[in-house]
Specification:
alpha+beta; two-stranded antiparallel ribbon
């Protein structure tokens, strides 16, 4: 499985980005994103941040328990 990790600053600009894989898939930890998936990673990251940002105004909990609806 391949993963995308990104640290975003307060202006929604990526400060740090990296891709990594697990040792189970290929045994080497190399990410195996297709080019299409690699291009979608920043879009999905921003969409996730928008969802969490919107969720914070609709709940009284400090840490929302379930954000994957």
């Amino acid at each position: 499985m391949s993963y995308y990790f990104c640290i975003v600053n307060t202006r929604d600009q990526p400060t740090f980005e990296t891709e990594f894989g697990t040792s189970k898939q290929g045994g080497d930890g190399i990410p195996r994103f297709t080019q299409e998936a690699r291009n979608l990673n920043p879009f999905l990251m921003h969409a996730s941040l928008d969802y969490v940002d919107e969720l914070q105004w609709h709940t009284n909990q400090i840490k929302p328990r379930n954000t994957a609806n």
